[in-house]
Amino acid sequence: EAAEHDALTGLLNRRGLHHALGTAVAEGGRASGPLALLFIDLDDFKYTNDTFGHGVGDDVLRRVAKALAAQLQPGECLARIGGDEFALLCPGRDAAAAARLAPRLVQVVARLPVNARGHELRLGCSVGVAVFPDDAPSADALMVCADLAMYDAKRMGKNGWAAYRHDAERTHSE
Predict the structure, then answer these.
(1) DSSP string covering 35-96, please?
(2) Do residues 4 and 117 make contact, with C-beta atoms less than 8 angstroms apart?
(3) 104, 71 Cβ separation under 8 angstroms
């Protein structure tokens, strides 16, 4: 359904993610399986758009979407939930499995070659990880936790990742 998909990338949009997440949380609750949610935000994307134009920005977003989608396991889904923000929904992945995936996503984005009018652009992203039911009891709360973790990753210097923490202890990886 078009209402649940992003026109630029063909991925699920925020509404589509919310629907998929609600379904996965309901199923996870019954099967008592973990569910990881990773928020991925491109670092300094506004600079790319402002400097090289929205055509280049759109191309970057499509390429990032394709590169991230290539990391999916069966049953996982990727969404573009905002301008330069993506979310990866991973049923069955616990905190340890998500902690192995997050740095790989950072590397995949950092390695993407992007040429903008003769300039080689270096992409980076910040990834936040939250896991149901450990970090959050509901789909809405899980989204908030993944978002908070992503902002932790940005605060810690970008181009890295952070797991949601209930306390001050934080995980960060380059």
Answers:
(1) EEEEEEEETTHHHHHHHH-HHHHHHHHHHHHHHHHTTPPTT-EEEE-SSSEEEEEEET--HH
(2) no
(3) yes
Burial tier of 4 (Cβ tally within 10 Å: 0-12, 13-18, 19+): middle
Give the Cα separation of 151 and 119 in Å (integer): 28
Strands 125-132 and 160-163, bridge-based pairing:
parallel
- Tell me the one-letter amino acid at 12: L
Helix (H) or strand (E) holding 162: strand 160-163
The residue among 27 and 68 whose pLDDT is bigger is 68
Q: Which residues, in sequence order, are CB contacts of 141 under 8 Å at separation 6+? A: 135
Q: Is 167 a catalytic site residue?
A: no
Burial class (CB in 10 A: 0-12, 13-18, 19+), 63: middle
Sign (positive/negative) of CA torsion 21, 151, 83, 38?
Answer: negative
Helix (H, G, I), strand (E, B) or coil at 3: helix
Catalytic residue among 84, 135, 147, 152: 84
Q: What is the pLDDT of residues 9-49, one digit of tens each?
A: 999 999 999 999 999 888 876 666 899 999 999 998 999 99
**DSSP characters over 5-38:** B-TTT-SB-HHHHHHHHHHHHHHHHHHT--EEEE
